[in-house]
Amino acid sequence: MKPRDRLRVAMQKSGRLTEPALELLRRCGLSFRQSRDKLFCFGESEPVDLLLVRDDDIPGLIAQGVCDVGIVGRNVLDEFRLTAGVEQAPLAELRALGFGRCRLSIAVPQESAYREPAQLAGLRIATSYPGLLGAWLRERGIEAGVVTLAGSVEIAPKLGTADLICDLVQSGATLVANQLREADVLLDSEAVLAGPAELPGDERGDLLALLLKRLDGVIQVRESRLLLLQAPRCAVEAVTRLLPGGPQPTLLPVAGQPEQLLLQALCAGEVSWRQLEEIKKAGARDMFVLPVEKMLT
Ligand code: PRP
Ligand code: ZN
Known about the structure:
27% of the residues lie in helices and 32% in strands. It is of the alpha+beta class. The protein has three domains: 125 residues, D-Maltodextrin-Binding Protein, domain 2 (3-Layer(aba) Sandwich); 88 residues, Periplasmic binding protein-like II (D-Maltodextrin-Binding Protein, domain 2, 3-Layer(aba) Sandwich); 69 residues, Alpha-Beta Plaits (2-Layer Sandwich). A seven-stranded mixed beta sheet has the order 2-3-4-1-5-12-6. Strands 9-8-10-7-11 form a five-stranded mixed beta sheet. Strand 8, helix 4 and strand 9 form a beta-alpha-beta unit. Helix 3 packs across helix 4. It is globular and about 80 Å long. The model has no long low-confidence stretch (mean pLDDT 94). The site of 1-O-pyrophosphono-5-O-phosphono-alpha-D-ribofuranose has 11 residues, from strand 10 and helix 6.
């Protein structure tokens, strides 16, 4: 078989991760032409193509070499790592992507007196994550029944097929709707870039390295703000001390005003109104907070 010279990225066909994943790839400078069947998207700006699939299939597609990397929830990746046979190629979390945050949690009926994991002994727990749940129970030496369900896990206690559940929680609305409450967190999850533990040594390896560099650039600056302001020389020290995240500012002269400086600083997170007001009190004026789109260092 001729080695592929294009990188193939698997991602969820339709679901919570689809739109933010596409947006992230767009920010990395990737554009695509969608095929008729909408399962394959040809990369136009770079030799990087997309395969749109069911999220649960993504780790297997990477392990089999059908795709090179994938954007998938950490919960799906870790479950695969725990349950895949030894014949499957090992997978790694290459990057955490900072969206699609949710938790894999134990949830019990609202009236349950649950306080600690030991109380789960002998109970039946419904889940789509038998690998992660099993490992969590083993670590705590708890013997409980694991009832594996492909979906609609949250109705199992009402149906009497389980006493409680272990499922993903994002807003918590599903739990509330089913009179359940979150009782313990097994895993904090978010979208990740999953890939082979060992990067391919061919052109695809170079493409992946390029993609990782661009992802880093986008992820790093996504939360960053560029702060611009003017301050008299005598106030610069006080203003600098108030900059959120403690960045080292760049100082520039202001034409015709020898006592005035322009200060520029990259702040690692949001800059709130309150913080701006404090900085203003310290002597700053003409303040601008700008979003940052790209960064390459
Ligand atoms: C998950 C999970 C819950 C729901 C929780 O399902 O199984 O049903 O989300 O979200 P909430 O706390 O915001 O209500 P999802 O919609 O991802 O579908 P899937 O499990 O079928 O993949
Ligand atoms: Zn799913």
